[in-house]
Specification:
alpha+beta, six-stranded antiparallel sheet, 9 helices, about 60% helix
């Protein structure tokens, strides 16, 4: 490799952060076969450079993955806040219509008093010569007092409600604007990291790109083998619940579809878009992002996981996959890749969560 290209790689290796480059470690997840290593001799320096590129790409895509989670979270909040603003607007419209009707009623009462010569109802009673009219009128006066008091109270409450709705709408609008800014900032982060990764990969020759793919595969195989060598698979024998089976069926049916950050299908997915939609298809809504899935779903010991459970990866919970059994998982890896099956231990496991803890396995 020329010095110019080596310089580009050296510069790129300086950037940090993360979503792992994933590739299926082969069809036999219980015993992955190592990939052939590059030839020694003159190619050794190039192999070292490519390993540096692999690590750099891993950091860039993990950074893009974290930013994608930020973007998805901001989008989810924005959708919720938009819905709240709409509901408040509806309440304001209804409140204004109610206030208008109440004012019309109050105006009608005032007009009636004017037509009576401006005298209060009590005065008309005193001037009445008919005792029965007096008694009937006294009852009407009491009713009128109650009605007037109730009307004024309702007018006051309606005005207060409208003022509160307006304050709430203003507060929600500010949150919505802040959410939009957070979403735009996350999008810039994603696009920057992906652009850097694509630039780095495009600088490689076809043969080097193929060898890079082999290095990625080897790294995944090595991690999966170490995980299996721990004997963990001997302990994992959980059976999927009915909902879990449906979620797995949905997720595996998406194999081959491209990764796209922020996507929830049906043609493209990001990692948490795939897992959340799979469980929605099974009749159970779960949080949209991998970090929220980790925070809000029930934690399960790795040895107790069953097909349909979600495996959360990396210390920052920036990636998620769905366990499908036999030491394998299905996931949407990263930009430039498609939904695929890989070894469940091919990346550092943070933990496992279960979307349907109250459902028995079959």
């Amino acid at each position: 490799m020329g010095t110019g290209k080596r310089g580009l790689i050296a510069t790129a290796v300086a950037v940090v952060c993360a979503v792992t480059v994933l590739a299926a470690p082969g069809t036999a997840f219980a015993n992955p076969t190592p990939s052939p290593t590059p030839s020694a001799g003159a190619a050794l320096a190039t192999a070292q450079d490519l390993e540096a590129v692999r690590k750099k790409l891993d950091k860039l895509y993990r950074a893009a993955g974290r930013a994608t989670d930020e973007y998805n979270a901001a989008e989810e909040k924005a959708d919720k806040q938009s819905a709240e603003v709409v509901e408040l607007a509806k309440k304001i419209v209804k409140g204004q219509e109610k206030l208008r009707k109440l004012k019309d009623r109050a105006g009608a009462a005032a007009a009636a008093q004017y037509r009576g010569g401006g005298l209060p109802p009590e005065a008309h009673l005193v001037l009445s010569d008919d005792p029965q009219d007096f008694l009937d009128g006294a009852g009407r006066v009491r009713e009128g007092h109650h009605a007037t008091k109730g009307l004024l109270g309702e007018l006051t409450r309606t005005q207060e409600d409208l003022e509160q709705y307006a304050k709430d709408a203003s507060a929600q609008w500010k949150k919505l604007e802040a959410g939009r800014k957070a979403k735009a900032a996350a999008q810039k982060k994603i696009e920057k990291q992906i652009a850097q990764a694509e630039k780095l990969e495009s600088a490689l020759q076809k043969e080097e790109q193929e060898r890079l793919a082999e290095l990625e595969k080897e790294a995944a195989n090595k991690a999966q083998t170490a995980w299996l060598d721990s004997g963990i698979l001997d302990e994992i024998d959980g059976k999927a619940s009915e909902q879990g089976k449906k979620a797995v069926q949905y997720a595996t049916a998406q194999i081959g579809k491209p990764y796209q950050w922020g996507a929830e299908g049906p043609e493209t997915y990001d990692c948490s878009g795939l897992t959340s939609q799979a469980w929605i298809s099974a009749g159970r809504g779960i949080p949209r992002t991998s970090q929220e899935q980790w925070k809000r779903l029930k934690h399960i010991a790795v040895q107790d996981m069953r097909p349909g459970d979600l495996i959360i990866y990396f210390g920052d919970a920036s990636h998620v996959a769905m366990y499908i059994g036999d030491g394998a998982m299905v996931h949407a890896p990263r930009p430039g890749r498609t939904v695929t099956i890989a070894g469940a231990g091919s990346m550092p496991i943070l933990g496992v969560v279960r979307p349907d803890p109250d459902t028995g396995a079959n």
